[in-house]
Write a structure and sequence with these properties.
By secondary structure, the chain is mainly α. It is 82% helix and 0% strand. It has 15 helices and no strands. Helix 1 runs antiparallel to helix 13 (316-344) and helix 5 (110-169) runs parallel beside helix 11.
Length: 391
C-alpha cells in the first residue's frame, strides 16, 4: 500500500526530528566538522556513516595516543639497562685510558714492548672499540624496539578499527544507505581504515629490529671469543658460532704468563695487569646479561600491551578524547535504534512520536544512558527548530 502525501510528510518529519536531535548533540560536543555537519544534514544515513567513521577514527586516535604517551614509561626499565651499559662503557674506557698513560711512563725496553705491552695495548684497544660499538648499537636497538612496539600496536589498533567499522556499516542502517553521496561517504570512511599500510610498517619495523639484534648477538659472541684469550686456557669454552667463523685473537693471557718469566718488572705489576683481564671477563658477562634482560623486558611489554596500557593513568588530553569517544558510543546506537522507530511507529502522529523518542532517550540500561540528559536537551532544541520551520 502506497503512503499518502500526509504520511510521507510525517515520516520525513520524524526522520528530521532524529537527525536534528543528533546534529544538535554533535554540534554542541564538536564531534564532527562543520563541512561534515552540512553533508550529514542531507540524510539520516549520511549522519550515521559520518558519526560511525568519526567514532572509529577517534577510537583509533585514542589508542594510538595511549601508545605514544606511555611508550617512554613502558621502556623505562629498558632505558635504565641502556644507561647502565653507557655508564659501564664510560668507566671501562677511563680505566683503559689510564692503562695507556701508565704504560707510557714505564720506559719499556723494545723487547718488553714487542713481547707483551704492545700486543696487550693492541688487544685492549680492540676491546674498547668493541664495547663502544656495542653501546652505540644498543642505543640504536632501543630506538628500533620502541618503533617496533609503536608499529605493532598501531597495526592492532587499525585492524580492530577496520573490523569494528565494517561490522557497523554492514548493519541495517549502514546497509540501507542510499544515493551517491551516502555510498561515496561509506567507501571513503571504509578506505580510511585499510590497515595494509599499518601492517607493512609493522613488518618493516620487526625486520629492522631482528637485523640489529642479530648484529649485536654477533658482536657479543665476538667479544666473548676475544675475552677467552684473556683467561686461563684451562677455563676456556669451545667457541662455535652457528652462522660465522670465530675470529682468531692474540692469546694475551699466555703472552703474559711467558713474559712474567723473563721480565722482573712485570712481576711487580702483575696484579694490576690481571685486574684488566678480570675487567674484560666481567664486561663480557655483564653486557650479555644486559642484552638478555633488555630483550626479556621488551617481550614482556609487547605480549601484554593491552593490559599494560589499560593500567596507565590518562592525562587531561586523553580524558577529553576518551569522553568524546563515549559520546560516540552512545550516539551511534541511539541513531540505529531510533531509525527503526520511524517504520515501527509509522502511524504515530508527530507529537506522539516525539514523546516516544523522549521516553526512549530516558530509558535506563541503554547504550546512550550516559548521554541521555544531553540528548533530551538536543531534542528540545531540534524540535523547536523543526516545528518553527514547519509552521
Amino acid at each position: 500500500m502506497n503512503k499518502g502525501p500526509n504520511q510521507v510528510m510525517q515520516t520525513k518529519q520524524k526522520e528530521m526530528l532524529i537527525v536534528m536531535t543528533a546534529l544538535s548533540f554533535i554540534e554542541q560536543n564538536a564531534l564532527i566538522t562543520q563541512a561534515q555537519l552540512n553533508d550529514a544534514r542531507r540524510s539520516l544515513q549520511a549522519l550515521f556513516i559520518r558519526t560511525s567513521g568519526e567514532e572509529t577514527m577517534l577510537r583509533k586516535l585514542v589508542e594510538i595516543l595511549k601508545v605514544n604517551k606511555d611508550l617512554h614509561e613502558a621502556f623505562s626499565s629498558i632505558s635504565k639497562i641502556s644507561t647502565n651499559i653507557s655508564t659501564s662503557v664510560e668507566i671501562i674506557s677511563k680505566k683503559i685510558h689510564y692503562l695507556k698513560q701508565y704504560v707510557t711512563r714505564l720506559q719499556l725496553t723494545p723487547k718488553e714492548n714487542s713481547d707483551f705491552f704492545t700486543p696487550f695495548l693492541t688487544f685492549t684497544h680492540k676491546f674498547q672499540e668493541k664495547i663502544l660499538r656495542f653501546n652505540q648499537m644498543m642505543m640504536e636497538y632501543l630506538e628500533l624496539r620502541e618503533d617496533e612496539a609503536k608499529r605493532v600496536n598501531e597495526f592492532r589498533i587499525a585492524e580492530d578499527a577496520s573490523r569494528r567499522l565494517k561490522l557497523r556499516l554492514s548493519g541495517k542502517l549502514g546497509a540501507q544507505a542510499t544515493g551517491e553521496v551516502e555510498e561515496s561517504m561509506k567507501q571513503e570512511v571504509l578506505g580510511n581504515f585499510d590497515f595494509a599500510g599499518a601492517k607493512a610498517s609493522m613488518v618493516d619495523a620487526e625486520r629492522k629490529s631482528k637485523v640489529e639484534a642479530k648484529e649485536i648477538s654477533d658482536l657479543l659472541f665476538d667479544l666473548k671469543a676475544m675475552c677467552q684469550m684473556a683467561m686461563n686456557p684451562d677455563m676456556r669454552e669451545k667457541m662455535e658460532h652457528p652462522t660465522q667463523p670465530v675470529e682468531v685473537y692474540d692469546d694475551i693471557f699466555m703472552r703474559f704468563t711467558r713474559a712474567l718469566k723473563h721480565y722482573p718488572r712485570l712481576d711487580q705489576i702483575k696484579d694490576f695487569i690481571i685486574d684488566y683481564f678480570k675487567l674484560y671477563q666481567r664486561a663480557c658477562g655483564m653486557f650479555q646479561l644486559d642484552f638478555d634482560n633488555f630483550n626479556k623486558a621488551v617481550e614482556t611489554i609487547t605480549s601484554n600491551t593491552e593490559e599494560y596500557f589499560d593500567a596507565k593513568q590518562d592525562d587531561e588530553d586523553m580524558r577529553a578524547k576518551r569522553e568524546k569517544l563515549r559520546k560516540y558510543e552512545g550516539l551511534i546506537p541511539f541513531l540505529e535504534h531510533t531509525s527503526e522507530m520511524i517504520s515501527e511507529y509509522l502511524d504515530y502522529p508527530f507529537d506522539k512520536f516525539s514523546r516516544k523518542i523522549s521516553e526512549v532517550i530516558s530509558e535506563e540500561n541503554q547504550p546512550w544512558e550516559h548521554i541521555n540528559e544531553e540528548l533530551l536537551v538536543s531534542k528540545v532544541t531540534a524540535e523547536s527548530d523543526l516545528t518553527t520551520r514547519l509552521d
